[in-house]
Structures are given as C-alpha cells and as structure tokens.
Specification:
This protein is an alpha+beta fold. Helices cover 41% and strands 21% of the residues. The chain contains 2 helices and 4 strands. The chain has helices at residues 3-17, 63-80; strands at 25-26, 37-41, 46-50, 55-59. It has a 4-stranded mixed β-sheet, covered by helices on one side. Strand 2 and strand 3 (46-50) form a beta hairpin. It is globular, with a radius of gyration of 12 Å. 16% of the residues are buried.
C-alpha cells in the first residue's frame, strides 16, 4: 500500500471512530500514561485511541500530512456535534 492510500485508510478509521474520540488529534505521545489502544498499525502510520478521554494519537506523519489529517478530523468534529 502506498503512503497516500494508507493515509486515506487512517482517515476512514478516524471517521468510523469519531464518536469515540472527538476531543483531539495529536502527533505526540501523551505523558500522563493514558490507556491507549492501537487501532491501526501500517507501514507508514500508527493510529492509537484513548477511549477514556476521547482522543487520537497519530505517528509517522510529516507536518503536511498531520495538518491535512487535522483539518479532516476537525471537519468531522464540526459535523458530529
């Protein structure tokens, strides 16, 4: 799978899980030890979710990819409220 297709897969997973995690999308590991679950682990990206506090952590993105993903995530949050 190409990097672009994997990013689209991550977007689809976020779209499916947005009701469980509409409190943030981060590209750094939390420092407080929140319980995280890996819901996608590909060749390029890893997507974790914290069900207790309702946020995602994404790893492996470039700055541009993260901004694209964040805008996508933010648009989903607007429609989900």
């Amino acid at each position: 799978m190409t990097r672009e297709k994997e990013l689209e897969k991550v977007k689809n997973i976020i779209k499916e899980e947005i009701e469980n995690a509409d409190c943030g999308l981060y590209n750094i590991r939390n420092l407080v030890g929140d319980s995280m679950f890996t819901i996608f682990d590909g060749d390029y990206f890893t997507l974790d979710i914290c069900y207790n506090w309702g946020y995602f952590e994404i790893f492996g993105t470039t700055k541009e990819e993260f901004m694209e993903l964040y805008k996508f995530y933010d648009s989903l949050r607007m429609w989900n409220k």
